[in-house]
Amino acid sequence: MTNLFVLLIVVLLLVISFLIYKNAEIRKRHAKTMEQLHQMIVALNQRQKMLNDKVFISDEYNSNYRKDMKNLGDDVVELQKVFMEIISKGNIN
After folding, report:
1. Three-state SS for 90?
2. CA-to-CA distance for 60 and 73, rounded, in angstroms?
3. What pLDDT score was predicted for residue 78?
4. Are 55 and 61 in contact (CB under 8 A)?
5. What is the 3-state secondary structure (H, E, C) of 20-83?
6. Rounded to an integer, what is the distance from CA 15 to the centroid of its chain?
7. ∠ CA(47), CA(50), CA(53), 5° rounding?
8. Fewest CB within a 10 Å sphere: which of 60, 66, 87, 93?
């Protein structure tokens, strides 16, 4: 009977040792995966900042472009008015 208890204790100790070993392996894999995820998040964050900068530059360019085109259109209309006045007066030289 005592031998059975000793054998049971030895088997339980082996199982506990095996579970502790497997738990350590799982923890290492988890830590490695978390580090990879962290690196991925950092890379994505940097890419997002770069893309946000590009969007800002593009929006600023579009805004300036629209203003410049409006001013150019206004200048063209003003020139057309001047030409029409010159033509209507008959001062073509």
Report:
1. coil
2. 20
3. 94
4. no
5. HHHHHHHHHHHHHHHHHHHHHHHHHHHHHHHHHHHHHHHHHHHHHHHHHHHHHHHHHHHHHHHH
6. 47
7. 150
8. 93
Q: How far apart are CA 77 and CA 79, in angstroms?
A: 5
> C-alpha dihedral over 75, 77, 81, 83, to 10 degrees?
70
CA 13 remoteness from chain centre: 50
How far apart, in Å, do the first and last CA atoms of the chain sit? 129
> What is the pLDDT confidence band of residue 93, given thresholds at 50, 70 and 90?
low
Maximum CA extent, the chain: 130
Quickly state the pLDDT bin for 88 (edges 50, 70, 90): confident
- State the Cα–Cα distance between residues 48 and 32, nearest whole angstrom: 24
Quote the CA–CA distance of 31 and 24 in Å, as a whole number.
Answer: 10
Q: Do 74 and 80 form a contact (C-beta atoms < 8 A)?
A: no
What the block records as the tokens of 82 is 């001047």
pLDDT of residue 91: 57
